[in-house]
Amino acid sequence: MKHFFQVLGFCSVLVALTSCTSTKELTISTIEPSPVDFSSQIRKIGIVNSSQSSFVKSYSTRLEQLIVMEERWLAEKGTEAALTGLFDELAQDKRFDTVRILENLDGEVTDFGTRPSNATWDKIAEICQTNGVDAIFSLASHDTETQFSLKKTKIDQLDMMRDRTRVSAQEITLETLIENGWRVYDPKQRILVDEFTSNEQITASAKGISPVDALQAIDKRRETLLEQSKSAGSSYAQRMQPKKLDVQRHYYVIGTRNFELADDKIQEGAYHEAIKLWEEEIANPKAKISGRACYNLAVINEFNGNLNAAMNWANKSYDLHKEDATLDYITALERRQAQSDVLKVQLANTSFED
Questions:
Q1: What are the C-alpha distances in Å from 184 to residues 57, 68, 192, 339, 340?
Q2: Domain containing 80 — which CATH number?
Q3: H-state helical runs in the chain
Q4: Is residue 204 located within the same domain as residue 300?
Q5: From CA 155, how far away is CA 209, in angstroms rounded?
Q6: CB within 8 A of 95, min separation 6: which ones?
Q7: Quick one: 269 and 328 in the same domain?
Q8: Which pTM value belongs to this model?
Q9: C-alpha–C-alpha distance, residues 63 and 61, integer Å
């Protein structure tokens, strides 16, 4: 019986805490501008491979030799996959009239670096002019590193009598890190438009009688690694586009009966009716109530895409009742406002679809 009342008491406290929650969340769909801001004059893109495969790796066993051979294969094929992924994605971008992978440059391409000299900029401009492009996307680095581990295990095997028996075996686990470094060069303005590095880790394992047998039993590892490299190129191209993002904003649901009724309207999707209820509380003699009504009006205006009105209501809320949460919200709105001009230009010049 005592245990029953303890449980009942706990549940009562839980219900009370839940019912006293002063806020709920409203999901607002936003669009973030791309961190990469192109000149509108860049219409033709050249893609080059500037990565250098400098891999001299020693091995002392047959297993290590096979792993090193796989890394060498990936260094070549993975680079090709990354370039293809970038090409395929950029080719769908309506900003660009031409996207080309520049090959057979007879050793012209080197690592242009992060701070190209005047001579290097001249070389980049020459490559662009020769190939009829306005800017260079460079795969500046493509590095792979594989580590392996072994542990003893058991596997089923058919014996001479075709019966299954458990035998000693080895399990191998390969952890491969793939790093891609990208840079974008604008030779006309002589600026490094963007520099970005991505890292992905692929893990694969299998069992076999010997370590070599276990390695050879790993299924579709090459396909997975190539797909990841291609995805890295595609993801980098997507970095050039604005990005849809959902943000959570809280709004106040208690304080007066109007707050509770407005919450019901929000849940029903009747936002205009919720606004009317909050507007009735703007003149509430209690600063805390009127301030939170203004805060809710700021949130609903942001929800409706009116950032200027949202900022006005947020500032009024802070003037009435100085809460830290309101100040944080004002900072978030200021950030969105600062991005709005850049976003408008990008939306007008990209293939982004809302």
A1: 31, 31, 6, 22, 24
A2: 3.30.160
A3: 2-19, 62-90, 118-131, 211-216, 221-238, 257-268, 271-279, 287-303, 307-320, 324-349
A4: no
A5: 8
A6: 38, 42, 43, 349, 350, 351
A7: yes
A8: 0.75
A9: 5
Q: Which residues contact 195 (CB under 8 A, 6 or more apart)?
A: 114, 140, 181, 182, 183, 184
Give the tens place of pLDDT for each residue, 180-228.
Answer: 999 999 999 999 999 999 999 999 999 999 999 999 999 899 999 999 9
Are residues 51 and 126 part of one domain?
yes
CATH number for the domain spanning 342: value is 1.25.40.10
Longest dimension (CA), the chain: 92
State percent of the chain over pLDDT 70.
89
- Amino acid making up residue 14: L
The structural domain count of the chain equals 2
Same domain, 93 and 204: yes
Query: Pick from 240, 273, 294: which residue ends a domain?
Result: 240
Q: Which of 224, 240, 256 is the last residue of a domain?
A: 240
Phi and psi torsions of 21, nearest 5°: -60, 125
Q: What is the pLDDT of residues 89-141, one digit of tens each?
A: 999 988 899 999 998 776 666 678 999 999 999 999 999 999 999 999 999 99
Residue 268 belongs to domain spanning: 245-349
